[in-house]
Design goal:
Blueprint: H1 4-22, H2 29-36, H3 40-46, H4 50-67, H5 69-75, H6 78-98, H7 105-133, H8 142-154, H9 163-174
Helix pairs in contact: 1-2, 1-4, 2-3, 4-6, 4-7, 5-6, 6-7, 6-8, 6-9, 7-8, 8-9
């Protein structure tokens, strides 16, 4: 069993790393440890390599996004829930790919393989909610929708982020006529 202080250290490290990676520059492991308020030994005990830390940050973020589906569906109509969830996913995908230099090709592949099933399940849940209420086309396919998200995270962000506008077009195409 992991001690509570060790769990808290891990949570602080992940939060500090997420914040550091999202900012400008390329933070060192020591800078991340300082930001988390832990020693370098604690950081390396939890994450022996920079790649291990990056993978853990991405996995933690993905789990957070996946866990939001029920709350989004409870608080919003299905199309709006799908829109909010997708924009959150797109942001996470952009962050992951922004860290590309820190990850080996094998790590990118591992992320894709580990996340595909859970992401498809979340999209299925969101689309099925829309199908049940009659607002989403019955032929809407979760795998097709996921393919479209790749275009969204690659969409230009300057001078403005084009992903929300592109997603609005996609969601309009999902609506049952």
């Amino acid at each position: 069993m992991v001690r509570s202080d060790a769990r808290e250290n891990r949570v602080r490290i992940l939060a500090a790393a997420r914040e550091a990676f999202a900012g400008d520059g390329d933070p060192s492991m020591n800078q991340i440890a300082q930001r988390a308020g832990v020693g370098a030994g604690t950081l390396y005990r939890n994450f022996p390599t920079r790649e291990a830390l990056v993978l853990a940050v991405y996995q933690h973020e993905l789990e957070r996004i996946l866990e939001t589906v029920p709350a989004l569906l409870a608080a919003h109509p299905p199309i709006e829930a799908l829109q909010r969830w997708t924009l959150d996913l797109v942001d996470a995908m952009r962050q992951k790919h922004g860290l590309g230099d820190a990850l080996s090709p094998g790590a990118h592949q591992a992320i894709a393989e580990q996340s595909y099933g859970p992401v498809i399940a979340a999209i299925t849940q969101l689309l099925d909610a829309g199908k049940r209420t009659g607002v989403v086309r019955v032929d809407a396919d979760p795998a097709d929708f996921l393919q479209f998200t790749a275009a969204l995270w690659r969409a230009a962000t300057e001078p403005e982020d084009r992903a929300p506008r592109m997603l609005a077009l996609l969601l309009d195409g999902l609506r049952r006529r």
